Amino acid sequence: MPIADSGRWPRRRSRAIDWLVHESVQLRFVDDLFPRVCERLCADGLPLDRAVLSLHTLHPQFVGASVEWRPGMARAEIRLYDRESLATPAYLASPVREIFEGAERIRERLEVSGGAEGRYGIVADLRAEGFSDYVALPMRFSDGKRYATSWATRRPGGFRDEELAELEELLPLLAMAVEIRLNRRIARILLETYVGERAGLRILEGAIARGSGEVVHAAICFTDLRGFTQLAQKMSLDRLLALLDRYFDIVGEAVRAHGGEILKFVGDGVLAVFPLESGDACGRALAAALAACAAIRRWNEERQAAGEPPVGIGSALHLGDVLWGNIGTATRLDFTVVGPAVNVAHRLEELAKRLGYEILVSEAFAAGCDARSARLHRLGTYVLRDIAGSIAVYTLTDCLAPAAGIATTSSTPAAAS
C-alpha cells in the first residue's frame, strides 16, 4: 500500500516501523519500549486510550507479567502474576486467556449493550470508564509461543477496520522487538535465581572464561540446619522439601534484607557473603544471622502448635579475602567463591554445631564489628579441622548456652576486647 500524506494509517504505520527499527535500540526493557510505541501511534493519530501487553515469563515466583499504558502516564504500570492467579475468575474469564490458548482476535464493541459482558469481566469495567471499543490480538515469538496484546479506545464508533488490519500487520515487528528484550530479562532472572545477582550480572557482562575472577574482601556467613539427617529419616520427601524451602526462605530473606547475597546451597547449608565495598559488612552479616535465628524461633512456635518437632540452625561468621569467579571443567562451570577464608567459615560452623551455639564468629570478624563487639563473648582458642594453627572464637552474649561436656583449648571464656 503506498504511503499517503493524509496522516491516515499507512503513514502512521510507516513512522512506527521506522521508530522501532532505527530509534528503539537504546531502550533495554519492555516496559520502556511498549509505552513509546503507543505514544508514537497516538502522535500519528491512532485513537488509542489503553494498551496492555501480557507475557509469560520464567521466574521462581511469577508466571506472567503485564505492561499497561494509558495516555499521560509517567511510566507504564507493571503487574506480576503468581501461579495461583491462573485459577482466579478474573483470569479464567479474560480475553487474554483465550488469546494465549489460540484465539486469533477478540473484539468487543463497548457502545453496544449486552454481548459478552457476562463472559468477560473486563468488558463492564471498560464500559464504565467510557471506552467504546476493545480488541485483543495475539503476538507470536520465534519459538512459537503466543502472547497477548489488547487495545482500547474511547473514540465514538471505536476503531476502524482498516486501523485494526494495519495494527495486526505491525505486531510481528513489535513481537521481534519485545522478544529480544524479554529474553534478555529472562536470562537475567534465571542467572540471578541460580547463581545470584552479582554473579549473574558478571556472567551477562561476559565474565565467563574459566579461571576468571576477582578477589573480594567480604564477611562470610555459613548457616546450617541442625539435625537435618535425623529429620530426613523421619519425614516423607514432600514434607522434607517443604521444610527445606521454608528454612531457605527464612535464611534468604534475612541475608537479602541486610545487603548480602546467597552464593550456594550446600545440602542444607547456606553460603552467603557481604562484600565490604557495600559498607559495614560485619555488622550486616551479624544482623542477618540474628534475624534468621529470631525467625526460626517464631517458626518453631508454629511447628509446636502443629505438633511438629522444632528445628534449629547454626551460623558461622568470618572475615577475609575470597576469590569470586569461574571454576569447573572446560564445559561445566560454576561461579562461586573459594579460598582459605571460605574454608575457615565452614569449619567454624562445624565447631558451632559441636559446641551447641547458634552463632560463632572468628577473631577477624569480631575485630570488624566495631561497636557491636560489646555483645561478643570470647569462648577461647580452637583448632579447626584441616585448618593450620588455632583461632580465637567468639559468640554473642544473648545466644544459646553451649552443650555440656565439650572440651576446649581455653576452658574459661574471657570478655572480648
Give the distance, in angstroms, between the N- and C-terminal Cα atoms: 84 Å
Overall pLDDT metric: 83
Helix/strand/pairing class, anyone?
alpha+beta
Order of helices and strands: HHEEEHHEHEEHHEHHEEHEEHEHEEE
The global form is elongated
Report the β-strand fraction as a percent range: 25-35%
Query: Could you give me the name of the CATH homologous superfamily of the largest domain?
Result: Nucleotide cyclase, GGDEF domain
Can you count the beta strands? Answer: 15
CATH topology of the largest domain: Alpha-Beta Plaits
Tell me about this structure.
With 417 residues, the protein is α+β, with helices and mostly antiparallel strands. It folds into two domains: 186 residues, GAF domain (Beta-Lactamase, 2-Layer Sandwich); 207 residues, Nucleotide cyclase, GGDEF domain (Alpha-Beta Plaits, 2-Layer Sandwich), CATH 3.30.70. It is built from twelve helices and 15 strands. 32% of the residues are buried.
Topology:
Blueprint lengths: L8 H14 L7 H14 L6 E7 L5 E8 L7 E6 L6 H4 L2 H6 L5 E4 L11 H8 L4 E8 L5 E8 L7 H35 L1 H8 L8 E14 L1 H7 L2 H21 L3 E6 L2 E7 L5 H25 L6 E17 L4 E6 L1 H16 L3 E4 H5 L8 E7 L8 E6 L17 E2 L2
Helix pairs in contact: 1-6, 6-7, 9-10
